[in-house]
Amino acid sequence: xxxxxxxxxxxxxxxxxxxxxxxxxxxxxxxxxxxxxxxxxxxxxxxxxxxxxxxxxxxxxxxxxxxxxxxxxxxxxxxxxxxxxxxxxxxxxxxxxxxxxxxxxxxxxxxxxxxxxxxxxxxxxxxxxxxxxxxxxxxxxxxxxxxxxxxxxxxxxxxxxxxxxxxxxxxxxxxxxxxxxxxxxxxxxxxxxxxxxxxxxxxxxxxxxxxxxxxxxxxxxxxxxxxxxxxxxxxxxxxxxxxxxxxxxxxxxxxxxxxxxxxxxxxxxxxxxxxxxxxxxxxxxxx
Amino acid sequence: xxxxxxxxxxxxxxxxxxxxxxxxxxxxxxxxxxxxxxxxxxxxxxxxxxxxxxxxxxxxxxxxxxxxxxxxxxxxxxxxxxxxxxxxxxxxxxxxxxxxxxxxxxxxxxxxxxxxx
Lengths: 287, 117
What we know:
By secondary structure, chain A is mainly β. Chain A has helices at 101-110, 160-164; strands at residues 43-54, 60-67, 71-77, 86-91, 117-122, 134-135, 145-151, 156-158, 202-204, 208-220, 225-229, 239-244, 273-274. The model of chain B has no long low-confidence stretch (mean pLDDT 90).
């Protein structure tokens, strides 16, 4: 280092493993109590595919499998330094030769392994976690509702019928050369132009969308798999960000806050946890 | 190490193994004339359905067979997921020699080809 400044360690210096010190704040990995306004982190998952299962009453549950691959807290953002509270999570693995030098420097300064995907989740002050905390699938409870954010499948340059649901024109009865076209786009001399936001063909898909109130059906902690009922945006292999639902809030006492910490007494390989489906068979006729 | 694309295949195999433990399924092929017992809601006894398998769609745990029979003069085709917990027993009675994987031509033939006692 060829600088005129003396080589004295400065409190802002980046030491490995001490990235959580934002102006003297000490954050500990300790279970806490969730208040009515608290928000905990989300999780980054990889979409593996879809399948179906029959629950204990015989009803069919179609689910999407999400793989929560090595989620680690990479950076903590606090009000003193950044002005808001957030946790930056990293998922996956990446080789050093595939990352740019600024990215490698970021991971090295925080003392965290190299990750493939980084995403910031805004949290409240009581839900902060220290750098390096692992977040596993047990962060969620089967039976709760979550919001899933992902980038949808790209459909390319799509026509009016696919993109906006236009009906097109008859296939026969004299319709000439315009079976799938958008038809008229306006009036005549008055106004003499096409209004803005007229629905026309264009690029469809490949945008970020949120699917709300997705039911968590099952959790496989041994393999870090999350089973969500129904569909989520994106193709297989894409990253999805799962957060607690804003509308259908679960019981605050059931959720591990700020995240699930594995105790020493618990066994390593747990059986998959399935959502509680109730004691009454929904198919039996109520007399 | 497991490849990422194999995860769903492994899960499906695991579900099929769990379903096979509960009931033993014979090898089903199009052209088999089978007798199927299933549990219907609000009924104590198992319902019986006989017929000829005209199609088998293989897709992991949701493998389905399409069974056809003439009931009271009307041709009926029902699709059953064979690994469902509602289906308790499948027995193969006879086998009809066919040279197709999907026997949809039986819809357009005489009713006597789809009648089974």
